[in-house]
Amino acid sequence: MNHKHCRSFALNRRFVLLTGCSGGGKSTLLQALSERGFATVQEPGRRIVAEQLAGAGDALPWVDMKAFARRAIEVALSDLEAAQSVDDIVFFDRGLIDAAVALAHAGGPTIEQTLGETLVYERRVFIVPPWRQLFAADAERRHGFDAAVQEHHRIEKALETLGYLPTELPKVAVQERAEFVLKDCGVL
To answer: Which residues form the NadR/Ttd14 AAA domain (predicted)?
Structure first.
């Protein structure tokens, strides 16, 4: 996987990325945005884990992080391609940047080698901060809170390196978070 695959996508001001700390409320926020009628794209990682567990695959973050991250890049690229046909704003729960960060952390190519210099999401990215009270491990999230915080810092650093503008979401109820995002996106 190299940045040639990412060059087919140019900055899209309709593609809004929600990222940050694992277990910080991204999926719940995405659901709230969907309930308000906005197009949303579920997190690639959770879909991959469900797919791999159902098929006895090994592209799981706790088995083979590189294989998992490569698969996440494939899924994120497919999601971006599918979203091209949506005329309105699209909210993504994680995506290509998160997958590139995971691949680099697993010893794969650097984030820049994977993504190149092209921004594919709106420059302003909403980032959920570590929030211990929300964090919970489950069958698809087997890492602990400390690992989630480390991942969060890697993502923040990558966003800044790539030229994105991280906007940290407040630690408030999901409906307040949704309003914050929608106001910031100019749709409220």
So the answer is: 16-177
User: How many other CB atoms are found less than 10 A from the CB of residue 11?
Assistant: 12
Entry field: residues in the chain: 188
> Domain 3-184 falls in which CATH fold?
Rossmann fold (3.40.50)
Q: How far apart are CA 2 and CA 110, in angstroms?
A: 10
Residue 51 CB-density burial (10 A; 0-12 exposed, 13-18 middle, 19+ buried): middle
Q: Give the span between the Cα atoms of 13 and 187, in whole angstroms.
A: 13
- Whether the per-residue pLDDT at 140 is higher than 80: the answer is no
Task: List 90's β-bridge partners, or say none.
Answer: 15, 39
Least confident of 130-134, 156-160, 175-179: 130-134
Output the six-digit token pair for 104. Answer: 């680099």
For the entire predicted model, the pTM comes to 0.86
CB 66 within 8 A of CB 106: yes
Type and span of the H or E element at 28: helix 26-35
Domain boundaries, the chain: 3-184
Q: Tell me: the pLDDT tens digits for 15-50?
A: 999 998 777 888 899 999 999 999 999 989 888 888
Q: Dihedral sign for Cα 106, 27, 60, 76, please.
A: negative
